[in-house]
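We give the entry.
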Amino acid sequence: MAVVEPIDRTVGHRIAVAREGYGMSQRSFAAKLGWPHSTLANYESGRRRLTLAHLAHIAHVLDRSPASFLVESPTAALLLNRIGSNEDLSRRVAYFLDSLDDPIPNPPD
């Protein structure tokens, strides 16, 4: 059996919190995913390692970015979800971040 790392428990807990935020039981969410209840229960408890493909599937069903389950900050997770779900906003944020490296022009005399 693979060693389960603390990140497995952390991500599992975040998935459970997101699922509960939608008011779904483990059983109903597992059914939505097309998985046995025990599979989801093992992921949420951190007893089983979560593959990226399964994380992406969970995130899709919850209408979230997979990355939002991996970041430490709840604020960063909210930003990832908001930016990831809006292509125009993603381009604007990318433009803003790219412009941070530009030198600040001198004010006119």
